[in-house]
Amino acid sequence: MTEIIVTGHGDLSVGLVNGFEMIFGKDEKVKAIPFNEGEGLDQLQSKYETVLNTFSGQADVLFLVDLFSGTPYNAAARIALQNENVEIITGVNLPMILEAASFKETLTLDELVLKLKSCGSEGIKIFSEQLCGMEKEVVNSDNDEYSL
Question: In sequence order, what are the residues at sequence separation of 6 or more whose Cβ sits closer than 8 angstroms to the Cβ of residue 7?
């Protein structure tokens, strides 16, 4: 089992977890920890440790962070360097959180990380590209030709 901490600058993590809960429901193993203006690395690491102490202690922990090398990442990295059962993924988005919560009990931490790496980029869609793909399908279906 993997327990999840969503974090980032400002209230980003709170908003993402609120959105996750609207879709998925409340999950005690998915926590938002915001990095507020005026806080430093040590304060944020302390917030992480407080939440980690509420987790089971035997589970793996996955930090889903907004930016590589920002303070939320650096505070998580301090923890990850001291614990082999902790991993960090940057570029957090809502599809990534939904996927993480869906598979956190069935995949190992390493498997989950690989799955989320592709999920993060697959969650990005460009309207015009999607529209072109739909138009192609409609045109082909009118001619009884189907192509992918």
Answer: 13, 32, 33, 34, 35, 44, 48, 63, 64, 65, 66, 72, 76
115 burial (CB, 10 Å; 0-12 / 13-18 / 19+) is: middle
Q: Which residues are catalytic?
A: 9
pTM assigned to the model: 0.85
Give residue 59's pLDDT.
Answer: 86
Measure the CA–CA gap between 35 and 47, rounded to whole angstroms.
9
pLDDT value at residue 146: 42
If we measure between CA atoms, which residue out of 48, 95, 96, 100 comes closest to residue 71?
48
Q: How far apart are CA 4 and CA 101, in angstroms?
A: 8
CA distance 118 to 110: 13
Nearest to 43 by CA among 71, 68, 15: 71
